[in-house]
Design brief:
With about 100 residues, the chain is mostly beta strands. The chain has a single domain (about 5-20, about 30-100), classed as Jelly Rolls, CATH 2.60.120. It is about 15% helix and about 45% strand. Strands 1, 3, 4, 5 and 7 form a five-stranded antiparallel beta sheet that branches. Strands 6-2-8 form a three-stranded antiparallel beta sheet, with no helix packed on it. It comes from Paraburkholderia tuberum.
Length: about 100
């Protein structure tokens, strides 16, 4: 499967869940996918944590210094989401959809 086919597949799945109430279908999580390339996003806090699936589209691309795979941030954690060394898709799950953007 090419990166473009994979991206369409993920978009189709999250498109079915995005914007839905946090119910039994989403098990209380918000679901989203971002496509990032050599960029840092806005700083934010995870009141209940965050679960990320990192899917590099460029060899060597990282998300917050992590290679392909899962990254879990605990409750109260904070970061400025950063993709370096190329392009990556990041699927992220937020318990109860909770996120607080900060000025940091």
């Amino acid at each position: 499967m090419s990166p473009q086919e994979f991206q369409r597949l993920i978009a189709g799945v999250t498109g079915q869940l995005a914007g839905r109430p946090l119910d039994d279908d989403t098990h209380g999580f918000s679901v989203d996918v971002v496509d990032m390339q050599d960029i840092a996003g806005p700083h934010h806090v995870h009141p209940h944590g965050e679960i990320d699936l990192i899917m590099p589209l460029t060899d060597g691309a990282t998300f917050d210094g992590h290679p392909a795979g899962w990254c879990v941030y605990g409750p109260g954690s904070a970061h400025r989401p950063t993709v370096a060394n190329g392009r990556a898709l990041v699927l992220y799950l937020l318990p109860q959809g909770a996120i607080e953007f900060t000025r940091a």
